[in-house]
Structure formats: C-alpha cells, structure tokens
Amino acid sequence: MSSQNQNQSQGQTQVPSLDALLNSGRKEEVFASVKASLHNCLSETNLQLTVPGLKSKTRGKVRDIYDSGDYLVLVTTDRQSAFDRILASIPFKGQVLNETSLWWFNRTRHMIPSAVLSVPDKNVTIAKKCS
C-alpha cells in the first residue's frame, strides 16, 4: 500500500507540494485556482455591525482598529499602502503581517511586556489598551 493510501486510510489526506502540482501537468488548473482566489482580499471590515460591544472604529492605512472599552481589536487587512495612499489589496498580506508582528512580540516578550491578549484569527489581534 502506498504511503498516500496509508495516510488516507488513517484519516489523513496527503497534500501534494506546489512543485509536484506544477510538474504534474496540472499547472493551468493550479493557476486558475489561484486566479479565482485573488478576489478574496480583506480590504474592508465592518465588525461593528456583527460584534456587540464595539464602541468605535478607526480605519488606518492597513489596520482597522475597534475599541471595546478596555481592549482593542486590531484587524490587519490586505491593503497595500505607500506615500499615505492605499494602492491595492494583496491576498494574504494581512495574515503575513499580523503573524510577523506576533512572531516578534513572542520573540521579545522576555525583554518587554506586550499588550497582545489573544489572536482569534490570522488577521486579528486583541490587545489591552495601554495607558
């Protein structure tokens, strides 16, 4: 039995690498799938409409910040900015930026405390308000 079949029989699905997909004759299928996903950018947020207790929203160049009293909800969007202008949206940019920030907060927590309390989503950080 192949390792892929063994993994599937154990409830695990083997995901082929991107190189394997591109070299398998499925290149056009992969590119079409990527192109179809490009519209899934997080450019705007409206949490105040669905999350109770949010008092206000501040829209920055890249992050939308919601005030909930003692805490801030920071949503890192896919907006790309330069020279104080929003230029475009790049898929997954917000996730990469938020996760990079969290990596640094974790890496430096032995030197200085952080306001980060929770990360309920790859684009969202909940932080204490600093006084």
Tell the overall outline. globular
DSSP strand tally: 7
- CATH architecture label name of the largest domain: 2-Layer Sandwich
The fourth-level CATH homologous superfamily of the largest domain is: Phosphorylase Kinase, domain 1
Q: Calculate Rg over CA atoms.
A: 20 Å
Structural class call reads: alpha+beta
Uncertain stretches of 5 or more adjacent residues: 1-8
* Strand fraction: 25-35%
CATH class group of the largest domain: Alpha Beta
Overall mean pLDDT: 85
What is the helix content? 25-40%
The CATH topology of the largest domain corresponds to Phosphorylase Kinase, domain 1
Distance between the termini: 61 Å
Count of DSSP H/I helices: 4
Catalytic activity: 5-amino-1-(5-phospho-D-ribosyl)imidazole-4-carboxylate + L-aspartate + ATP = (2S)-2-[5-amino-1-(5-phospho-beta-D-ribosyl)imidazole-4-carboxamido]succinate + ADP + phosphate + 2 H(+)
GO molecular function, one term: ATP binding
Pfam family, one: SAICAR_synt
Pathway: Purine metabolism; IMP biosynthesis via de novo pathway; 5-amino-1-(5-phospho-D-ribosyl)imidazole-4-carboxamide from 5-amino-1-(5-phospho-D-ribosyl)imidazole-4-carboxylate: step 1/2
